[in-house]
Specification:
- It is globular and about 55 Å long.
- It has helices spanning 10-24, 33-47, 52-59, 63-72, 84-98, 115-126, 142-150, 158-167, 225-237; strands spanning 104-109, 133-139, 152-154, 178-181, 184-187, 195-199, 211-216, 239-247, 262-264, 271-274.
- The N and C termini lie far apart (57 Å).
- It has two domains: 5-72, no CATH class; 84-281, 3-Layer(aba) Sandwich (Rossmann fold), CATH 3.40.50.150.
- With 282 residues, the protein is α/β, with parallel strands linked by helices.
- Bound molecules: S-adenosylmethionine (SAM).
- S-adenosylmethionine binds at residues 74-78, 82, 110-112, 116, 139-141, 144, 201-203, 217-219, 222, 248.
Amino acid sequence: MTQSPDQFDDEFLMQFIAELHSRSGYDFRHYSLTSIRRRISRILQVQKFSDLSELKTWVYSCSDAEHEFIESLSVPTTSMFRDPEVFKIIRTAVLPMLKHLPLLRVWSAGCSTGEEAYALAIMLDEEGLYDRSRIYVTDINEGFIGRARAGIFPMRLMKEYTTNYMESGGCHDFSSYFETGYDRIVFNGRLKSNMVFAHHNLVSDSSFNEFGLILCRNVLIYFGTPLQGRVLNLLDDSLRVDGYLILGEKESLRMSTIGGGYEQLQRPYKVFRKTAPGLSQT
Ligand SMILES: C[S@@+](CC[C@H](N)C(=O)[O-])C[C@H]1O[C@@H](n2cnc3c(N)ncnc32)[C@H](O)[C@@H]1O
């Protein structure tokens, strides 16, 4: 019988997570305990381990197991034009305000397998901005970055993605953006010509550029409140004044110190315009 999350010994779990940090440098100590428990429960089921100590023995058995464990703590859930209304706001209210920039830097932070980045590339292309844009596509999980770079996705998802595309205001033939083969599609290479794929850990890495548009959606929900605040400061440090920050549906600036420097475009959507320099930028 596999242990369920409510049977976990939290002290043992937190010590294990702390040791993992010392051994690997990956710091999950300030993620929300609920999300860590849920993830670990899934790993126990997939690996058919009965309890945490069996899992720990496996993780410490070799560096491949440790790496696999770290990667499997990530939640990959994503889709193209996820929450189409948000992409519609980006198309109709955000991109027109960024059109004057000679180079538009966009950051898809916590990009998972890259669907968000391809959706952005298509939208920027249709709005005549792609040729002077750079999309930085980053995640903590190297495996996800590899899949994003490949730009190959299951055919079975294309019906849903086409509907999302149209609901987000797209009016071209969505199938013109990819080639089909067997049960997969491959996005046109041109869509990734201005993408930069990189490993970036929002918990431990710093700001690396100044962006006009940052999407960090459905990532903060896995973090505890203090960590959310720290990551929001990092995003704020990375965003130009008059730039836009997009968060996930269940995320907000409410608990952070940066909220005062932002205006929300249209409630309830988490699309924020930065109206004032952050404290570290004054
Ligand atoms: C649920 S997915 C969200 C994907 C996409 N942003 C979206 O909304 O569809 C969460 C992503 O956050 C990434 N992630 C988790 N912790 C991270 C960290 N410390 N730094 C960067 N990415 C992280 C995970 O690897 C995963 O790809």
